[in-house]
Specification:
- The structure is a single chain.
- This protein is 33% helix and 17% strand.
- The chain has 730 residues and is an alpha/beta fold.
- Among the domains are: 229-289, no CATH class; 373-499 and 526-564 and 693-729, Rossmann fold (3-Layer(aba) Sandwich), CATH 3.40.50.10540.
- Helix 1 packs across helix 6, helix 6 (149-170) packs across helix 7 and helix 14 (386-396) packs across helix 21 (526-549).
- The two termini are 42 Å apart.
């Protein structure tokens, strides 16, 4: 009987924050027994939606990690992996060399910052200048960001790193560390924004202006809808534009700046405002226009598509009762273990302290500095961002990734910066999958692959021979990964989708709007990146199971599933009421409370977070220089940092960051030396991160075909013994 990949593992979770707790939870959803170490009096966060979500399915034991050394050592002796945070007694790890360990820090060890930073995404992002990438709606300067996407990305990075180490151990690799940080998590979506090229092209430098409004329109009932395609041709929009007439359309358009995609922006805005949102959504969806309303956070718990895919689950939590919470963002067979409540505090003490032997692995035969996924082969048929980024992360960990591109290349190549941010470490070959002559090459790639990935809509993929059953017929051991917008089952399983739509529907666009403002889209595109990371983790879990059992399997992730997890600090009670943890932003988008916010000084902006809400008056700070205000706040126990502007180039050209592996550079045929954010993990002696530049289209055709032993299909010849005659099947 097929079991979940990590069914025989024990993971010790000593984390208190979001990142480490969610990483351990994901291992538990894939079958691991996760033991949550809580303070002797219980975790203070018990009773919150966040604690209930992040600790689903975990057992509980109360220990003081500073004093209860014997019990903690006993737990580590019988465990297989450990997730922890700074402050953990390092001496205990010396007695447990068999463990795979992951420490999630605010910033990597050795990172150059004037003062120690807290585990607070807002402060960490401010300190390195990432907040400057998010403009405020109605003023100059940075905007406050509620969503802790650095922590969510760090959670996936920790889970991915542990899973990669497990795959490596099964293949003769060593145990060891796989640390990450909130900063490195935040750098994942920054890949498409931060880059430095020796020879930048007009396309690379011509980023969309931060001031360009996202395509969000208000309807007659006050609901805002985010659309991702020009809607001028839909029946309702066309009728309303015709009724306005050319003169009125032109007059309305003249009220707005010209937009490269929405040529009738002003007239569209007037049209949307004339009809209620339900009427518009019906019109847009019937016309295959990707669109979603900007919902209050938590409303998506009632979504039928989310429930059908188990992205939302009922949980009978021992502290807050029966609630709806995020479920599992990864689809696998058998279904991931989700919707199981955390145990009551200290309920599993005796059982957890009972003797256990750690899992047996093959004797190590690989060098201690080998990347964990060396020898793993991946074929990437994906396009755009969410899918291809997932296997780029695996390339960073040593996998050989062959990117198969359609004629003319991945459509994302038109957005040079975004393309470069999700393709490093890969080799490219251009193939027309509809051309019979390409079949021998495709078949040979699949035969030699460990993993095949794509994000092609499944009905089309099956016609191309890239459905799971077709792949398994060629290679029974294959692990197949698929990314979609809305998940593999349900009425919307084939609908198109984009990051923006899921920022809208999960409530984040309203959460970041600020009082009285239009919804605000975070331009980091983190829903795409979280989706990619969730698939990367699922692929590694399935690969680990394949290494132990020989069984291939299918894994799916989606934008909807990954984005719902970010609602984790909101729960829906049985009566429909929502528990909301954070307050509303002010109209200037500087913060939601006096003690944790942005403030303007005479020479720039600072960010601060502290133990209370007795922050300085903004009219006072505006007249003082940043350093004076920062010094005052730090004396009162606040974390306070200056928000640098245009920090990407500074970060990427800092030798100290490069020495830490936080910056990588490679030679590119067009751009010359190209710099990007570097390693997302610290693995001790293992040098993580690819030195192979994002590929040119078809750059590696010759070497890939030579490795496969196949002639170029464009020349009309194939190698003997492939099972295909291209001329006969054409």
């Amino acid at each position: 009987m097929t079991q979940l990949p990590f069914h025989d593992l024990r993971v010790i979770d000593c984390a208190t924050g979001l990142a480490g707790s969610v990483a351990a939870m994901m291992l538990g959803q894939m079958g691991a027994e996760v033991v949550k170490i809580e303070p002797r009096g219980g975790d203070p966060a018990r009773g919150s939606a966040g604690f209930a979500t992040w600790n689903q399915g975990k057992r509980s034991i109360g220990l003081d990690i500073a004093k209860d050394r014997a019990e903690l050592s006993q737990l580590l002796t019988g465990a297989d992996a450990l997730v922890y945070e700074p402050g953990f007694p390092q001496g205990l790890l010396e007695n447990a060399p068999h463990l795979i360990t992951s420490c999630v820090r605010p910033v990597p060890e050795g990172f150059d910052c004037e003062h120690e930073l807290p585990s607070d995404d807002f402060v960490v992002m401010a300190a390195v200048g990432l907040l400057d990438e998010q403009p405020a709606t109605n003023r100059d300067g940075p905007a406050f960001i509620h969503l802790p996407f650095g922590s969510y990305c760090a959670a996936w990075l920790a889970a991915i790193g542990i899973a990669a180490r497990l795959v490596s151990r099964q293949r003769g690799g060593m145990p060891g560390m796989v640390d990450t940080s909130i900063l490195q998590g935040a750098l994942v979506p920054s890949m498409m924004l931060w880059r430095v090229a020796q020879r930048p092209t007009d396309g690379l430098e011509g980023r969309i202006d931060k001031r360009v409004l996202p395509s969000i329109f208000e309807c007659a009932d006050g609901v805002w809808i985010h659309i991702m395609k020009n809607a001028d041709h839909t029946p309702l929009m066309k009728r309303l534009l015709d009724e306005m007439g050319p003169k009125v359309v032109a007059a309305e358009n003249a009220k707005w700046l010209a937009h490269f995609r929405y040529h009738n922006w002003g007239a569209n805005a007037r049209a949307f405002k004339s009809r209620p949102s339900a009427e518009w959504l019906a019109d847009l969806w019937a016309s295959d226009i990707p669109a979603q309303p900007a919902l209050p956070m938590g409303e998506l718990y009632c979504d039928a598509q989310a429930q059908a895919n188990r992205y939302v689950m009922h949980v009978d939590d021992p502290d807050i009762g029966r609630v709806r919470l995020p479920g599992t963002p990864v689809t696998i067979e058998p279904p991931a273990r989700a919707g199981v409540a955390v145990a009551k505090f200290n309920a599993d003490r005796d059982d957890c302290l009972a003797g256990r032997q750690p899992l047996a692995f093959p004797m190590p035969t690989r060098p201690s500095d080998a990347l964990p996924l060396e020898g793993i082969r991946i074929v990437d048929f994906g396009n755009y961002l969410a899918g291809p980024l997932s296997v780029m992360l695996l390339a960073d960990l040593g996998a050989d990734v062959v990117k198969v591109e359609p004629p003319g290349g991945d459509p994302m190549r038109a957005n040079e910066s975004a393309f470069l941010g999700c393709q490093r470490g890969k080799r490219s070959i251009e193939l027309d999958l509809r051309d019979q002559r390409s079949r021998p090459v495709v078949r040979a790639l699949i035969e030699q692959a460990d993993i095949v990935h794509h994000n092609i809509r499944l009905p089309t993929a099956e016609k191309l021979g890239l459905g799971y059953e077709e792949l398994r017929a060629i290679n029974p051991r294959i692990v197949f990964g698929h990314v979609s917008a809305y998940g593999p089952v349900g009425d919307r399983r084939f609908w198109p989708g984009y990051d923006q739509l899921f920022q809208a529907s999960t409530g984040w666009e309203l959460a970041h709007a600020g009082s009285g403002n239009r919804p605000a889209w975070l331009r980091f595109g983190m829903m795409d990146h979280l989706c990619a990371a969730s698939l990367a983790f699922g692929l590694l879990a399935a690969l680990y199971r394949r290494e132990r059992t020989g069984e291939g399997s299918e894994v799916a992730a989606s934008l909807l599933g990954a984005s719902i997890l970010t609602m984790s600090e909101v729960a829906m009670r049985s009566d429909g009421d929502l528990t909301v943890r954070f307050g509303d932003l002010d109209s200037e988008q500087t913060g939601a409370s006096p003690g944790r916010r942005l403030t303007r000084c005479s020479d720039g902006w600072i960010a601060f977070a502290g133990p209370d809400d007795t922050a300085p008056d903004r009219s006072v700070t505006a007249a003082l220089p940043c350093e004076a205000v920062i010094e005052c706040l730090r004396e009162r126990g606040f974390a306070a940092v200056r928000v640098p502007q245009g920090a990407g180039r500074t970060f990427l050209t800092d030798p100290a960051n490069e020495a830490l592996g936080l910056v990588t550079r490679y030679n590119h045929p067009i751009y010359g030396e190209l710099r990007h954010p570097g390693a997302f993990w610290n693995m001790g002696p293992v040098r993580v991160g690819s030195r192979r530049a994002p590929p040119m289209l078809d750059q590696h055709r010759g070497e890939i075909l030579a490795e496969l032993g196949i002639g170029d299909p464009r020349a009309g010849s194939v190698a003997p013994g492939t099972g295909f005659d291209a001329r006969a099947s054409a």
